[in-house]
Amino acid sequence: MSTGSKAGLDALLTPEESVLLLIDHQPFQFANLNSHEPTMVVNNVIGLAKAAKVFDVPTILTTVLEERGGLLIQGLQDVFPEQKPINRTFINTWQDARVVDAVKATGRRKLIIAGLWTEICVAMPALQAAGEGFEVFAVTDASGGVSKEAHDMAVGRMVQAGVVPITWMVVLGEWQRDWTREETVPGVAEVQMQHAGATGVAFAWEMQLLAGHARSGL
To answer: What is residue 61's DSSP assignment?
Structure first.
């Protein structure tokens, strides 16, 4: 079972305790993604990755058989241009020692996972890592399955094992936690404007209005 508090302040994520694992956001996987609109998952996982970069959360990228399934989607690779994804043969990412060693090297126990597909590439490592004492969070809207049923059943199965389902904007909000953390506010605002849909549009509009007032001296 995943360890850690399920209620109270300690149940929330902090940047200092988190490590992010992004699994198999590749063309072959997207080709049979039917639980979500694919462009939404692309948007969300890139937003999640950018948020991790804002908060200096260690992020591990991994692919499976990329020579056949395709390279990591470009928008995600562009967030970490210097990082070569760990290319696996194991379907279960947590059986690849390189991935596990990379996670453990961070010294962090709150493991946040997103990937394609939810029922296989997210559920398998989430279940195993939870059984090994990690506090595991599955980012459901930056992941997706071959059908809505497959995705939903995977989330339910993970919840039974103590994995916490969460969405990418919640991760961002818990990492920020307090708007007086001014050093990350510009980065958070940029991520929201680029990836938070109507929230981002409204925020950009607000900034435009404030800039206009400043120019007019109001």
So the answer is: E
Checking DSSP bridges between strand 59-64 and strand 164-166, what pairing results, if any? unpaired
How confident is the model over 164-178, as pLDDT tens digits? 999 999 999 999 999
Domain boundaries, the chain: 9-177, 178-218
Q: Is the peptide bond before 117 cis (omega within 30 degrees of 0)?
A: yes
- Which residue has tokens 């994520």? 13
Q: Percent of the chain beyond pLDDT 70? A: 95
Question: How many Å apart are CA 72 and CA 170, to the nearest integer?
Answer: 24
**Contacts of residue 66, Cβ cutoff 8 Å, sequence gap at least 6:** 26, 72, 85, 87
pTM (2 d.p.) = 0.93
Fold of 9-177: Rossmann fold (3.40.50)
Query: What's the rounded Cα separation, in Å, for the pair 30 and 38?
Result: 7
Q: Does 206 qualify as catalytic in the annotation?
A: no
The active-site residue, picked from 57, 121, 158, 191, is 121
